[in-house]
Amino acid sequence: MKPQDSIGLDPINSLCVSTRAGRNLYFRYSCKTSQSALPAMFVRLSSFTILVALVGAATMDKRAAPIDQMVGYATLNGGTTGGAGGSTTTVTTLAALRAAITGATPKIVQISGIITGDGDTIDVGNHTTIVGIGANSGVTGGGFRVKARTNVIFRNLQLSKSPAPTDLIELQTSTNIWVDHNTFTSDLDHDKDFYDGQLDMNHGTDFVTVSWNVFQQHFKCSLVGGSDNTGDEDSGHLRVTYHHNHFFEINSRTPSLRFGTGHIYSNFFDNVLASAVDSRDGAQTLIEDNQFTNVVDPIETTLNGGFAVQRNNVFTNTTVGAIATGTLTTVPYAYTTDAAASVAAIVQASAGAGKVTGL
């Protein structure tokens, strides 16, 4: 750690390191944690520098957040590995895709080219990785559904224009899902209900990470919690991380979150037309190090009884209204943010299909 770096403790079990490079690194700790389990830190008081020698910590990496690493809630609850260790199948037709992704055995299914759907859902089995080959592989005119399943990964896919009521991806009563480096595309030419969601989660889905995706030209982007009346099954679940996504020309729901817990960091909200992050029905959100540019209602809590903690965000041509302050100030995993002022360039360079450097 260089002298120009700084380190501090959040009063609620969070260690934050701010580096000269403009990165904020967060580590969760317990008040009962022994000193040997925490990093060495400097505490500056007036003209004195007190070195608190706390040894045995992992090295603090000051580089940008890695683009090929799973971070967030999908790493918990045993982790998310998808079809690792299973057979690999390459598909080019809808029938072959449907057949390949069913069942509970580990499997990696590679899509080659764009498959045209039939408007219906494509159901995904347990322990499955679905990955696009190259920069232009995926599905148009249909969408995936993960229903009462676990351990699924979607990566490097072009997903577009699934007519309602089929979402491009729907997660229902499922756990441990990673949605990474995909491009979701619709259009704003049709009525707002012509398409359904680009990425929706409901009925107690849990432990999800949504990272390095592009969501573009859509009315109702990402709904987490399907109804105001599902608190019994959703409360205590719907834990989701959104990081390093590009929301471009979206009308609303980036995301809209009911009842659950959302960690939303280092995203680029770019021309959002009606509302961006909408925390509702008691949901707790931590919104940090994001860039909001030309966004109407960037953080909404007061209309529908949600909560948010917002910190280190940059708002450009964007007005922030009243926010009902929440209690979510730390999360139970390590993560690295990029400084909000750098997020737009970083996300535009590295988010979406065709940008993954390792699968």
TrEMBL record:
Its main location: secreted. It is found in: Secreted. One of its GO terms (cellular component) is extracellular region. Residues 84-298 form the Pectate lyase domain. Gene3D superfamilies: Single-stranded right-handed beta-helix, Pectin lyase-like. It comes from the Eukaryota. Transmembrane segments: none annotated. Keywords: Carbohydrate metabolism, Lyase, Polysaccharide degradation, Secreted. One of its GO terms (biological process) is polysaccharide catabolic process. It holds the Pfam family Pectate_lyase_4. One of its GO terms (molecular function) is pectate lyase activity. The keyword Cell division does not apply. Belongs to the polysaccharide lyase 1 family. PANTHER family: PECTATE LYASE 18-RELATED, PECTATE LYASE 21-RELATED. This is Polysaccharide lyase family 1 protein.
